[in-house]
Specification:
single chain, eight-stranded antiparallel sheet
């Protein structure tokens, strides 16, 4: 799926969401249930740098269910190798009890990487899907836990392995 198609689909989805919100009795009810959050990451090594930003928004349907979307942008450079990943995800959050959060998230990233060799630069560009299931401990606006990528591919994934920790923050 091209970046233009993803942006178009995202625009249409937001447009439909806002249109439906207009039909409610009170518009402020919709925005009172929207929570914003995301993550920022920075990493430094002797010969490298890694940075990421992922803004996110969810709609809190009730005390137990929430659903939303997130955008992702990652950049890394190690020696002469470069890596860029961008895309988005949709997620569903379920809290059977206030302290326990169970989640499902489908992520689609466009991967552009350049590997420098002594003679040429090798470019590799592809779409990478990931489907995470996770569980975490929630306290107020923060959830910490583990998630597992059911579609993990050792040869193409940008993640070190299928199981990884996460921290979610929503206000």
């Amino acid at each position: 799926m091209s970046l233009k198609k993803m942006i178009f689909i995202g625009f249409i989805t937001l447009n439909i969401t806002f249109s439906l919100a207009q039909t409610t009795r009170n518009n402020s009810d919709f925005w009172n249930n929207v929570r914003f959050g995301g993550s920022i990451g920075l990493g430094f090594t002797n010969n490298g740098f890694n940075g990421s930003i992922s803004p996110s928004a969810i709609y809190q349907f009730n005390e137990q269910f929430a659903s939303g979307a997130s955008l992702s942008f990652n950049y890394a450079k190690f020696d002469e190798d470069k890596f860029l990943a961008y895309g988005g995800s949709v997620l569903i959050l379920f809290n059977p009890i206030p302290q326990l959060q169970i989640s499902a998230e489908f992520e689609q990233l466009r991967i552009n990487r350049t590997i420098a060799t002594s003679t040429i630069d090798i470019e590799d560009n592809y779409w990478l899907p990931a489907f995470f299931i996770g569980a975490g401990y929630s306290t107020r606006n923060v959830t910490m836990g583990l998630r597992y990528d059911l579609l993990y591919d050792d040869n193409k994934s940008i993640y070190g392995n299928a199981l990884m920790p996460f921290v979610r923050v929503y206000f």
